[in-house]
Write a structure and sequence with these properties.
Largest sheet: 8 strands, mixed
CATH superfamily of the largest domain: Alkaline Phosphatase, subunit A
Distance between the termini: 49 Å
Order of helices and strands: EHEHHHEHHHEHHHEHEEEHEEEEHHH
Number of domains: 2
Radius of gyration: 22 Å
CATH topology of the largest domain: Alkaline Phosphatase, subunit A
Length: 475
């Protein structure tokens, strides 16, 4: 057996924390992810950095918040001087592979990519949407998008898992460690899978959440506009349980099966020296607050993500962790586990200690941001800059061009009532505000400025003249 440490990083797209059976779902069938959690550590308070595909992925694969890496919205690419994790691991002597959705190619690649691997990842294993389309041909690609009468082998997810199995077999006994990313597009739309997976959910109902009745009164105007954009389709009639989308939830079970294939390959070829990480880039409103999809909100349904880590010799089977952790923390954590130095540019915390001492927190808060939905998108109200701090109990959301939000997650876990103007929480609100401003300063956020300081509920909090955060940070 090799004495080095490999990493297999598995991710999905648009998969909420509660879309796993092990995370409490009474109707989602995810037996393979449930078994992975039974063999490793399941995190119950993991958060994305941005509830949107490209910026979330930018944080995962650069170790930088999206406004620092450049890829702050869909169809915006990374800054040229930003290094991806493939380059980091290559420089450390690892074999690298990226199989599946990338979504960091900017406008040129659009949603499905350019078909060209970026520096750090070999073309041999690259398999973005463009490569999948080349593989199956235009007719096969359109059939997959339609999602009708599909065999498993005709699906992007199946082919991603197939390549991952081959990579693991080929490299499991090599002299060099490997860093493999297995990135599934599923269950994101078009939610394509074989018919039998859709049939599993036909006629079934999801449990009703109280915040499905959120009127969005005293909430940001963009939330109401976002609801109208989807023509109120996220609304669930009062007193009724919401129906399932057979395609969406069927695709969720389909991708679970593909993930199972990858995990089984790890267990077959290199179980003792391979760390398996699973997460999703962000969640989905799925009717909560009357909304669909993801976008310019910081509700738990879109920002809380599943996260499971199985690290041989470190994590205990069936272990759980309730401490806060952010996607931004995964890059330095995995570097530490792999035995390589983290680049100084990384903006997250090393969370390795949580794997052996899950009761001891590594932080008191996580930070999130939002810029706009996509560069060419003029819907969803375009430029909607948001900064958010989420602690164990409270969440402050600054909507630069809109009404701000404050939630007490202990008394109002569904985030139905914003208490931004509640004098009883003014001290807590202002403390969170100060911490959020300090975070923006510490990373020289390019969007920082007086607008974030002087809010309607804190008019005297003004950026001082000749304010220089760089000197503040360095001094």
């Amino acid at each position: 057996m090799s004495n080095h440490t490999n990493i297999v990083f598995i991710m999905t797209d648009t998969q909420r924390y509660d879309m796993l059976g092990v995370n409490g779902s009474t109707f989602c069938q995810t037996p393979h992810l449930d078994r992975l959690a039974a063999g490793g550590m399941n995190f119950h308070a993991a958060y994305t950095t941005t509830p949107l595909c490209t910026p979330a992925r930018a944080a995962l694969f650069t170790g930088l918040y999206a406004t620092s890496s450049g890829a702050a919205a869909n169809q915006i690419s990374l800054f040229e001087n930003v290094r991806n994790m493939g380059q980091v691991y290559n420089d450390a002597g690892f074999v690298t592979g990226y199989i599946g959705k990338w979504h960091l190619d900017g406008r040129e690649g659009g949603y499905y990519g350019t078909g060209r691997a970026p520096d750090g990842f070999p073309q041999q294993w690259w398999y973005d949407g463009k490569q999948f389309r080349i593989d199956v041909g235009d007719a096969g690609f359109e059939k997959w998008k339609a999602g009708d009468d599909l065999a498993a082998t005709e699906c992007w997810g199946w082919r991603v898992a197939d390549r991952a199995e081959r990579f693991l077999q080929q490299h499991s006994q090599a002299d060099r460690p490997f860093y493999l990313v297995v990135s599934f597009d599923e269950p994101h739309g078009p939610c394509s899978a074989p018919q039998k997976y859709y049939d599993m959910y036909r006629g079934t109902k999801r449990p009703r959440a109280a915040n499905m009745d959120d009127s969005l009164e005293n909430k940001p105007a963009v939330h109401r506009a976002f609801e109208e954009y989807y023509q109120h389709r996220g609304r669930v009639p009062a007193g009724e349980d919401p129906g399932n989308s057979p395609k969406y939830y069927g695709c969720n079970t389909f991708v679970d099966e593909q993930i199972g294939r990858v995990i089984q390959a790890v267990d077959r070829f290199c179980p003792d020296n391979t760390i398996v990480v699973y997460t999703s880039d962000h969640g989905d409103h799925a009717g909560s607050h009357g909304l669909l999809a993801k976008g310019p909100t910081m509700y738990e349904e879109t920002i809380r993500v599943p996260l499971i880590i199985r690290a041989p010799g470190m994590t205990q089977p069936g272990a759980t962790c309730d401490q806060l952790i952010s996607h931004i923390d995964l890059a330095p954590t995995l570097c530490r586990l792999a035995g390589i130095d983290s680049p100084a540019a990384f903006q997250g915390r090393d969370a390795t200690a949580l794997l052996t001492e899950p009761s001891k927190p590594i932080c008191d808060e996580v930070y999130l941001e939002y810029f706009r939905f996509g560069l060419p998108h003029h819907t969803r109200w375009g430029f909607q800059p948001i900064k958010c701090i989420r602690t164990g109990r409270y969440k402050l959301v600054l909507n630069l061009l809109d009404t701000d939000e404050l939630y007490d997650l202990q008394t109002d876990p569904g985030e139905s009532v914003s208490r931004i103007d509640d004098p009883k929480l003014a001290t807590i609100r202002n403390e969170l505000h100060d911490r959020l401003l300090a975070w923006m300063d510490a990373r020289l956020d390019p969007l920082r400025g007086n607008g974030w300081w002087q809010r309607p509920w804190r008019p005297d909090k003004v950026m001082p003249p000749r304010y220089d955060p760089a000197k503040k940070v360095s001094g």
